[in-house]
Amino acid sequence: MSSKIETFTEEFLKNLNATITKNSSTWNVENIPQSFQDFVGLSAPYTLNFAESTDDSLFVGRGSRFFSAMTQYLENVGKNTILKIDFDDSLHNPVEEIRKRISLKNCEIENLAKTFTNHFFTRFTFRTQFRYLNESETVMGEIYVHDGEVVSGDLSGYRVVEGTLDSSSSSDSSQSSHSLNVSPDTLRPDHEIAIARVKELVISKTHEISEVLEKNLGEEESRIRIHYENLLGELGGDLQSRISKIKELELALRVADGVEADELRVKHERLQKNLVKIGDDDSRSRILKEQSFTLQDAKTKHSLTIDNKLMNTTIIYYPVYSCNLYLKGYDSKRFITLSYDPLLQKLGAINCEVCKNSVVDINLCSNGHITCEDCLDKCGECGKIHCKTCVSKSCSGCAKKLCKSCSFLCFGCSNYVCINHLRNDVVTGEQRCAMCLRACLRCHGLTEAKYFGEAIDGSKVCQKCLGGERRGEVLKDVFRE
Ligand SMILES: [Zn+2]
Ligand SMILES: [Zn+2]
Ligand SMILES: [Zn+2]
Ligand SMILES: [Zn+2]
Ligand SMILES: [Zn+2]
Ligand SMILES: [Zn+2]
Questions:
Q1: Nearest ligand to the C-alpha atom of residue 379
Q2: Positive or negative torsion for Cα 83, 89, 90, 91
Q3: CA 143 to chain centre
Q4: 168, HSE (Cβ side, Cα atoms, 13 Å)
Q5: Alpha helix (H) ranges present in 41-93?
């Protein structure tokens, strides 16, 4: 009973190209593809024990963990395995990562909510068999593909559990963002990438074997050719010697008589018969035919067969967090979304909204813009912290930098001014900058140059004063009547 299991185990492990070292009561097994280790749920190397279970060995018998892993693995050849990386929240807490990695200068996190979506990468386990002469060599390879690229995969250090593919027909809409939709179509590009990689990986081995085979074949072919040349040579050489032998006999027959002559005659007859056989073109072509067959056979024996088999496809999924942060500054608020990939340990970038560079030290402008230290500015009027975009104006009177709410547009000259350089036009009642207005010497009010006129006494006064003067004239005339 147990010997059957041992044979099965040995066959199985050899197929995986594992290294088995047999001890008196246990086997040490190394070089096991990760995909099978995942089935066992234990990291290799293994010490296998077919008789009993001990603290430092794995029992292999019907119903044992190792045995069912082997049968499961065989059942799954060519199928997909789904695994999930279970991240320890205390080690991979996205909120903690955000707090650790970014520094908030003039604002704080008022509210933070996290959600996640499942991302996945794929592992393809290949077995490549090289068959040539009477040899067979096996190479196992595991290729990880993530985001369309071959990556160096290593799951050690992660807690990997059996995963499930959520059915797409899930009626719960809140769950839908968490479901993993992997169809054969989704995997096809990854599969092609992996196959291309396997071909790359076996190419040097193929060259190595082919070179040896070619050299061997060359030697074998020249051996075959020499052999058949000898045969042909013998054919010709034999013919010559036999002809001269017959001639000798014919000469001897002339002088022989009696029994001796009878014997010579029989011999002559036999040689003559053989001569006909040897001289036959058939013999020659038969030898040549046999040679070409032997050469072809040698070629076939020296050909290399490469057999690639996809043993297992594993889809490994893991959560990528999306954190919604509500930042609160002194006088503004801002909502931002940051992603955190716990596998790559990568936090989504935050960029300065002025210079577009990624920032770690975050400032919030009074208008809610995310700003780096270099792109911060202050309004010369209200003193509030703004980003450079928000204090892009300056007063045409005093050159003070101004924020939007502290700058005023003069409709006379189209320049911006600060509150101190803003005046009221006494004639139109509109606001103008101080530079666009002139003072009336009579009322000391300000108005644009075009609103000045000549008073009765010849002085230049504003329209307002002129109007007053005219009204006075009219009244004087009325009283004179
Ligand atoms: Zn910046
Ligand atoms: Zn201001
Ligand atoms: Zn701003
Ligand atoms: Zn000013
Ligand atoms: Zn002006
Ligand atoms: Zn005036």
A1: 2
A2: positive
A3: 11
A4: 3
A5: 65-75
Identify the pLDDT of residue 187. Answer: 84
Which H or E run contains 196? helix 184-255
CA of 432 to the centre of ligand 4 (A): 12
| 284-316 tens-digit pLDDT | 788 889 999 999 999 988 999 998 888 888 888
Asked whether 323 and 340 are in contact (CB, 8 A), the reply is yes
Distance between Cα 427 and ligand 6 center (Å): 8
Indicate if the pLDDT at residue 181 is higher than 80: no
Per-residue pLDDT band for 321 (boundaries 50, 70, 90) equals very high
**Would the pTM count as exceeding 0.85?**
no
Task: Give the pLDDT score at 170.
Answer: 35
CA 437 to centroid of ligand 2, rounded, Å: 24
Dihedral sign (CA 89, 91, 92, 98):
positive
User: What span, in angstroms and rounded, lies between the C-alpha atoms of 404 and 407?
Assistant: 6
Tell me the DSSP string of 297-332. Answer: HHHHHT--EEEEEEEEEEEEEEEEEEEEEEEE-SS-
Q: Taking the CA atoms of the chain, what radius of gyration do you get in angstroms?
A: 50
| Ligand 6 ion: Cβ-proximal residues, 5 Å cutoff | 440, 442-443, 445, 462, 464-465
Ligand minimally distant from the alpha carbon of residue 418: 4
Looking at per-residue confidence, does 182 or 452 come out higher?
452
Distance 368 CA to ligand 1 centre (A): 14
Q: What is the pLDDT of residue 285?
A: 84
C-alpha 380 – ligand 2 centre gap (Å): 7
Per DSSP, 375 falls in state G
Instruction: Kindly give, in sequence order, each residue whose CB lies less than 8 Å from that of residue 59, ignoring residues fewer than 6 positions away.
Output: 49, 50, 52, 53, 66
Q: What string of H, E and C letters represents the secondary structure of 399-453?
A: CCEECHHHCEECCCCCCEECHHHEEECCCCCCEEEHHHCEECCCCCCEECHHHEE
Q: Map residue 46 onto helix, strand or coil.
A: strand
Distance 293 CA to ligand 3 centre (A): 87
Question: Using an 8 Å Cβ cutoff, are 6 and 29 in contact?
Answer: no
Contacts of the segment 343-350: beta carbons below 8 A, 24+ positions apart: 343/85, 343/119, 343/318, 345/92, 345/97, 347/97, 347/98, 347/101, 347/102, 350/102
Percentage of the residues of the chain whose pLDDT score is greater than 70: 91
The percent of residues in the chain predicted with pLDDT above 90, rounded, is: 40
